[in-house]
Amino acid sequence: MAAAVWGAQRLAGRAARLFLLPGRTSRLLCTVTQEKSTGPNLEEEPSHHHSEQKSDSDSVAKLLTEEKTKLEDQLKEMTDKYKRALADVENLRQRTQKLVEEAKLYGIQSFCKDLLEVADVLEKATESVPKEELKDENPHLKSLYEGLAMTEVQIQKVFGKHGLVKLNPLGAKFDPYEHEALFHVPVEGKEPGTVALVSKVGYKLHGRTLRPALVGVVKEP
After folding, report:
1. What is the CA radius of gyration of the chain?
2. Could you say which of 3, 4, 122, 202 would form a disulfide bridge with 213 (CB–CB 3.0 to 4.6 Å)?
3. What is the DSSP letter of 162?
4. Kind of pairing, strands 179-186 and 213-219?
5. Taking a C-beta distance cutoff of 8 angstroms, is the pair 159, 165 a contact?
6. How far, in Å, CA of 19 to CA of 37, rounded?
7. Which residues neighbour 113 within 8 Å (Cβ) at sequence distance 6 or greater?
8. Are 167 and 178 in contact (CB under 8 A)?
9. In the chain, where does DSSP find H-type helix?
10. CA distance 156 to 149
């Protein structure tokens, strides 16, 4: 009798274990599934990280673009300043060169003016000698005249060598930049506005009027 009871209990225990095993397995599967569903989203993390990297890259690119634009503007400004400085230096060089050349050309201006008085005296001296007296009977006067004439020719050669040119505008059109009108007089057969008489010759030094010619100008009758 006792043996039968023990056997029955043993069979009941085995049956209970057989019925309980599937339940435990189901519960374990549910737990694993729940942990998987509630655990960290491994697929979303890389996507979020990639978005942050893209945002950082855009910010860096924007900063580099702004810095590039700023540097280009500075380069353009410095280039403009450099070009203006070069132009100023070139203008200064040209002005300085022109001043030096003018100093070389017109540095003897005062000296030439003083020599003009000597040339005027020589001219007056040769003009004052009566041509009819220049005969073999007057050898001293003839020699003096020839000496004065040769001196006048030689001084005009020296003047021409240094750019000093005589202005004798008789019959030419009156030019206020080269002539100084002392009087106006009507002259028959001559065009009004022309030079009728040269009282004193003028001179130009390298194209610049050093002394205007003193003239009388024809006017309408």
Report:
1. 60
2. 202
3. T
4. parallel
5. yes
6. 28
7. 210, 211
8. yes
9. 2-38, 44-106, 109-128, 139-161
10. 11
d(CA 121, CA 34): 134
148, 155 Cβ separation under 8 angstroms: no
Pairing mode of beta strands 202-205, 208-211: antiparallel
Cα-to-chain-centroid distance, residue 38: 77
Residues found in the chain: 221
**Placement of tokens 């910010």 in the chain:** 59
Pairing of strands 202-205, 195-200: unpaired
91/166 Cα distance (integer angstroms): 35
Using CA atoms in the order 43, 46, 48, 51, what is the torsion angle rounded to 10 degrees?
-140
- Give 129-176 pLDDT, tens digit per residue: 888 888 878 888 888 889 989 999 999 999 999 899 999 999 999 999
> Quick one: tokens of 166?
């005589």
Q: Please give the Cα distance from 214 to 201 (Å, whole number).
A: 7
48's tokens: 């979020």
What tens digit of pLDDT does each residue of 75-110 get? 999 999 999 999 999 999 999 998 888 887 788 888
Place of tokens 């942050």: 52
Residue 174 per-residue DSSP state:
P
Kindly state the DSSP code that residue 212 receives in the 8-state scheme: P
Q: Is the dihedral of CA 38, 40, 43, 44 positive or negative?
A: positive
Joined tokens for residue 171? 């019959």
